[in-house]
Amino acid sequence: MASSTKYIFITGGVTSSLGKGIIAASLGKLLQSRGFSVTIQKFDPYLNIDPGTLNPYEHGECYVTDDGAETDLDLGHYERFLNITTSQENNVTTGRIYNNVITKERKGEFLGKTVQVIPHITDEIKSNFYKLGQDGKFDVVITEIGGCVGDIESLPFIEAVRQARWDLGPNNFLVIHLTLIPYLKAAKELKTKPTQHSVKQLLEAGIQPDILVCRTEHHLPADVKKKLALFCNVQLNCVIESIDADSIYDVPLLMKKEKLDERVMTKLKLSSKQNTELENWKEFLGKLKNPTQEVNIGLIGKYVSLPDSYKSIIEAFTHAGASIECKVNLRLISSEEINPDNLQTKLDDLDGILVAPGFGERGFEGKIETVKYARENQIPFFGICLGMQVAVIEFARNVLNFEKANSTEMDPETPYPVIALMEEQKKIDQMGGTMRLGAYSCDLKKSSKAYSAYGKTKIQERHRHRYEFNNEFIKEIESAGMIATGKNPDTGLVEIVEIKNHPYFVGVQFHPEYKSTVLSPQPLFVKFIQAAIDKKIK
Ligand code: GLN
């Protein structure tokens, strides 16, 4: 391997959900602050080609990149922490690996050989490990291996990491193992055994972790660290404590305090190009933790029992709220439980209402009721994707009196298909990767709320949907007071609708939440929170 790129692999042990994505993103942030160009990729062990076909209850939200890849939500953390964009290359699943290998086999590329997990699958995994590092654009590529060490399905990834050490050479390769040190209340003790076992499993697979990052609810005493170092065969100063934090955004600073970045740089023989001390990051945290005002915002959706389904929206509120020193109390409310009888009580104390993206009929009528309530009671409203479509349908039904107006997604026979499929979408018979995906341009009307948020007429936002505003109805809808204030300059598709006589009523066909980062909060979220503050003061 000729490239000088350094590769850091992050594996997980003991249990899932320890936050490998946050640790990867935090380390990335620290290395970035020392002047290195960094990217992070995630390798997921499941067989879906990508998470686009997964129900959000399986793995949380599907995150969409500029290039239209449907990816794991951890890529959202990478973008939000590092202020970078990621792409299809940054998320690879076992399904994609096998698909590639089988396609090559059908083309005869293996020249009569028996195609096997080792070396063919592992070679394919490794060539994907190295893709982003190849052109020298990045000093460091961090690779998060999804799942837990010991899972049958992650074995080929772990084997590929083992082999990568020899491809890359000693100072270019590093393994960080993220693990849990449980606290037994009854014994008042932190236990190291689960970590010893998970490191043993890594060792059986031929991998010696260089650094242990230990998730814990209590500080690790010196003797516990010593024990971990001894039994897991790592240097004492490479046992890093990762104590539970109030906010995920504290983690980079906690990791800096624990010198994770220094240990990594020593092992990879890297010396700092700069040291910015993360000033903007600290400023953001200061504002996040010392708000001067607060608002209640309702997020109305159908996947509310798993907040990870709305990860990017929740984080976008954190970034936008902090930027104007406002604490956003986000209430996740199930649209299935909303009906005309309980509407008032459910939504009464809200200063703003967001109707979330979604698919299918379940909870749809509750969303219609919610939009009606926000529109009639002059409550700041923000509709995202399906939320925008619902706003259009509600307007058609209740303002234009288009009885049974609907999206053809919910009612293919509707007499008023105000939201409908585009011609190109009608021919599609495969579900995976076939929606309108990724970044598209949008031109804004200068008189719009959207323009006042962005402060420019040309924007780009990311999409993930099949159905569109049906331009056959645009005249009637606009003359009744709902205006298309953002359009795609190439296709004329309506991307934003706003209602004129309302303090803040904005529906967007795209997903603005995907582009919100700590250092650049999304303008529509900022405006919406501001509108909620104004409503509250009134
Ligand atoms: N179900 C709608 C569509 O496919 C909206 C999708 C979404 O909210 N992401 O167009």
Radius of gyration, in angstroms, nearest whole number: 25 Å
* Overall strand count: 23
Major β-sheet strand ordering: 13-12-14-15-23-22-21-18-19
Ranges with pLDDT <50 over ≥5 residues?
none
What share of the residues lie within helices? 25-40%
Number of helical stretches of at least 4 residues = 19
Distance between the termini: 64 Å
- Could you say which overall geometry the principal axes of the C-alpha atoms support? globular
What's the mean pLDDT score?
A: 95
- Largest beta sheet, briefly? 9 strands, mixed
How large is the share of residues in beta strands?
15-25%
Protein model, in words:
By secondary structure, the chain is α/β, with parallel strands linked by helices. The protein is 36% helix and 22% strand. It is built from 19 helices and 23 strands. The strands form five sheets. It has a nine-stranded mixed beta sheet with strand order 13-12-14-15-23-22-21-18-19, with helices on both faces. Strands 5-2-6-1-7-10-11 form a seven-stranded parallel beta sheet, sandwiched between helices. Strand 10, helix 8 and strand 11 form a beta-alpha-beta unit. Helix 1 crosses helix 9, helix 4 packs across helix 5 and helix 11 crosses helix 12. It is globular, with a radius of gyration of 25 Å. The model has no long low-confidence stretch (mean pLDDT 95). The structure holds glutamine.
Considering the chains and any ligands shown, give keywords for the structure.
538 residues, 9-stranded mixed β-sheet, 7-stranded parallel β-sheet, 19 helices, 23 strands, globular, binds glutamine
